[in-house]
Amino acid sequence: MQASETVELTGHLVDSGLLSRILDDIGEYGGEFSIDRFDVGHRSDEQSYAKITVSAGDGQALGRLLMRLQTHGANLVDPGEATLREVERDGVFPEDFYSTTNLETVVRVGSEWIDVEQPEMDCGLLVWDEGGRIRVRTIPVSEARAGQRVVCGAGGVRVQRVPRPEVGDQVFEFMNSEVSSEKPQALLVRRIAEQMRAVKDAGRRILWVAGPAVVHTGAAPAMVALVEAGYVDVLFGGNAIATHDIEAALYGTSLGVDLAQGRGVEHGHEHHIRAINRIRRCGSIRAAVEQGVLTGGVMHALVAHDKAFVLVGSVRDDGPLPDVYTDVIEGQRAMRAELHDVAFAIMVATMLHSVATGNILPASIPLVCVDINPATVTKLADRGSTQATGVVTEVGLFLGALADELAPAG
Amino acid sequence: MQASETVELTGHLVDSGLLSRILDDIGEYGGEFSIDRFDVGHRSDEQSYAKITVSAGDGQALGRLLMRLQTHGANLVDPGEATLREVERDGVFPEDFYSTTNLETVVRVGSEWIDVEQPEMDCGLLVWDEGGRIRVRTIPVSEARAGQRVVCGAGGVRVQRVPRPEVGDQVFEFMNSEVSSEKPQALLVRRIAEQMRAVKDAGRRILWVAGPAVVHTGAAPAMVALVEAGYVDVLFGGNAIATHDIEAALYGTSLGVDLAQGRGVEHGHEHHIRAINRIRRCGSIRAAVEQGVLTGGVMHALVAHDKAFVLVGSVRDDGPLPDVYTDVIEGQRAMRAELHDVAFAIMVATMLHSVATGNILPASIPLVCVDINPATVTKLADRGSTQATGVVTEVGLFLGALADELAPAG
Amino acid sequence: MQASETVELTGHLVDSGLLSRILDDIGEYGGEFSIDRFDVGHRSDEQSYAKITVSAGDGQALGRLLMRLQTHGANLVDPGEATLREVERDGVFPEDFYSTTNLETVVRVGSEWIDVEQPEMDCGLLVWDEGGRIRVRTIPVSEARAGQRVVCGAGGVRVQRVPRPEVGDQVFEFMNSEVSSEKPQALLVRRIAEQMRAVKDAGRRILWVAGPAVVHTGAAPAMVALVEAGYVDVLFGGNAIATHDIEAALYGTSLGVDLAQGRGVEHGHEHHIRAINRIRRCGSIRAAVEQGVLTGGVMHALVAHDKAFVLVGSVRDDGPLPDVYTDVIEGQRAMRAELHDVAFAIMVATMLHSVATGNILPASIPLVCVDINPATVTKLADRGSTQATGVVTEVGLFLGALADELAPAG
Amino acid sequence: MQASETVELTGHLVDSGLLSRILDDIGEYGGEFSIDRFDVGHRSDEQSYAKITVSAGDGQALGRLLMRLQTHGANLVDPGEATLREVERDGVFPEDFYSTTNLETVVRVGSEWIDVEQPEMDCGLLVWDEGGRIRVRTIPVSEARAGQRVVCGAGGVRVQRVPRPEVGDQVFEFMNSEVSSEKPQALLVRRIAEQMRAVKDAGRRILWVAGPAVVHTGAAPAMVALVEAGYVDVLFGGNAIATHDIEAALYGTSLGVDLAQGRGVEHGHEHHIRAINRIRRCGSIRAAVEQGVLTGGVMHALVAHDKAFVLVGSVRDDGPLPDVYTDVIEGQRAMRAELHDVAFAIMVATMLHSVATGNILPASIPLVCVDINPATVTKLADRGSTQATGVVTEVGLFLGALADELAPAG
Question: What is the model's pTM?
Answer without folding.
Answer: 0.92
